[in-house]
Design brief:
Largest sheet: none
Helix content: over 70%
Radius of gyration: 17 Å
CATH architecture: Up-down Bundle
Number of domains: 1
Number of strands: 0
CATH topology: Four Helix Bundle (Hemerythrin (Met), subunit A)
Number of helices: 8
CATH class: Mainly Alpha
Order of helices and strands: HHHHHHHH
Shape: globular
Amino acid sequence: MRIQWFYIPNLICYFRLFLVGYALFTEDLPLKIVALGTSCILDYVDGLTARFFNQQSFLGSRLDLIADALTLLCMGYYAYTQSSMLWFKGLLLFSMFNDLIHYWVILSSFYHKETNVDHKKELRQNSFLARLYLNQPGLAISNIMSDIFLLLCIYIPPAIYSSLTLLCFLGFLFRQICLIDLMPRILNLKRV
């Protein structure tokens, strides 16, 4: 267990947590975006690194979920503060609540013991939307589009009008719809 602290993917997660903390305390908006964008990119790197070096661990799975949740909440908060559109602020609040519940339920109900069970495999059963969202390309594309959308909203408050932002907005909405669809299944995950 002691060596898990220094697994390469875990070190990447520690750095992601540092980046989120830095984004919270820096006043420079472009540096906030760089820190949060780097954390988003490293989210994909840590998973690839864990599989490549065969360093998947209980600690790493928790660190990754915590870093994901904090990054998304931080991006949502800054996009919320930059927006003046009431409907958009409501959508961001809903999104942050949805993400927070999603991560909290998975952390508290499924990972309370060390296990090698793949929660994504269990969640894919009996739902077309879950299979579409939780397969590697679907998850990666919708999450990347959602991350880009939130980063664009931090930097360009009325960013809904560009075609890139509109496309990313659709990925953001798809992700939220999938999380709503997954919520009953997440709540019913068997305790290990």
